[in-house]
Design a protein that fits this description.
The chain has helices at residues 55-69, 84-90, 102-111, 152-164, 215-220, 252-261, 264-271; strands spanning 17-18, 45-51, 73-79, 96-101, 116-121, 128-130, 145-149, 168-170, 184-187, 192-196, 210-213, 230-233, 240-245. By secondary structure, the chain is α/β, with parallel strands linked by helices. The protein folds into two domains: 17-22 and 126-236, 3-Layer(aba) Sandwich (D-Maltodextrin-Binding Protein, domain 2); 42-124 and 239-288, 3-Layer(aba) Sandwich (D-Maltodextrin-Binding Protein, domain 2). The chain is globular, with a radius of gyration of 19 Å.
């Protein structure tokens, strides 16, 4: 057991319960926002940044064909953490990224003072609690060890899931979207929490009794969400988004990407029965595309 990490949380599946609900609504652009004479048509060779997991495949399968037909080429660049894709975008090394939820983006761009903008939500695989020791939440033993992400947006997200599952209780007087382990007023199982980089959680699953793992990294490691102890029910603020630089919002490629995600071809690939994306949670307006 690796005990050199820190302290914190978990999630699980047989019941889909709501995690944290952001107080503010999440309003993203629609393609009509960009129908202006000032639109710029410059970028036709796009570079997309992704993290490990399914979103590079989703782009290749369901978005890129539309863009190719519209005259674009796309190079997909894989990063091994949640930090590099945003910094690379801000530094003009890539033109867009597709790996993060809205809440993470919001916190990251303010922390690093970056001018980045979400343009459209996409179907998203949930965060889940996995274990090679337990088969259900009821089996969790007193003092069990649990690993969770160390970035604060996903840390509070994990705690919210535990709260929704009735495993811990967050102080009702605090903003759950900013909760830390110090805000727990009840830990009925006396769980021992450890934090680590999100991209290491799936690889170190056997080092802990339980692990709360972001969906993309669980997917990348071949973990089956149907075997998770608990899966979160995503609120709109935790749906993944495609992100560009704010300065590029008047670029034609932004319009075309939004159109691609709102296309019938995209929807059909996502809803394909037994397809790789059929179990992903979908934005609330998905069927209105």
């Amino acid at each position: 057991m690796k005990r050199g990490y820190l302290l914190l949380l978990v999630f699980v599946y047989p019941f889909l319960l709501t995690s944290c609900v952001q107080k503010e609504s999440v309003v993203l652009p629609v393609v009509e926002d960009y129908y202006t004479e000032a639109a710029v048509i410059e970028k036709r060779d796009l570079k997309l940044g992704v993290a490990a997991g399914p979103y590079g495949d989703m782009f290749s399968d369901a978005i890129e064909p539309y863009l190719i037909q519209t005259g674009y080429t796309v190079e997909i660049i894989l990063y091994d953490d949640y930090i590099q894709p945003n910094l690379a975008l801000a530094n003009n090394e890539i033109d867009l990224n597709m790996f993060q939820h809205y809440t993470y983006l919001n916190n990251f761009k303010f922390e690093y003072d970056l001018d980045l903008a979400a343009i459209v939500r996409i179907p998203t695989v949930s965060m889940s609690v996995f274990s090679h020791k337990y088969k259900s939440v009821d089996e969790i033993e007193e003092g069990a060890s649990i690993s969770i992400p160390d970035d604060y947006t996903n840390l509070s997200r994990a705690l919210c899931m535990l709260d929704a599952a009735g495993i811990v209780t967050i102080n009702p007087s605090v903003d759950k979207t900013k909760a830390t382990e110090a805000d727990l007023i009840d830990n009925t199982k006396n769980l021992q929490f450890y934090t680590m980089k999100a991209n290491k959680l799936a690889q170190s699953l056997d080092d802990f009794d339980l692990s709360v793992i972001n969906g993309n990294f669980a997917f990348a490691e071949g973990l089956d969400l149907s075997e998770a102890l608990y899966n979160e029910l995503l609120t709109e603020s935790y749906m993944n988004v495609i992100v560009v630089k704010t300065d590029d919002l008047n670029q034609q490629f932004v319009r075309d990407i939004i159109n691609a995600v709102h296309s019938e071809e995209f929807v059909n690939i996502i809803i394909e029965t037994d397809g790789k994306y059929s179990g992903f949670q979908r934005p609330r307006d998905f069927l209105n595309y």
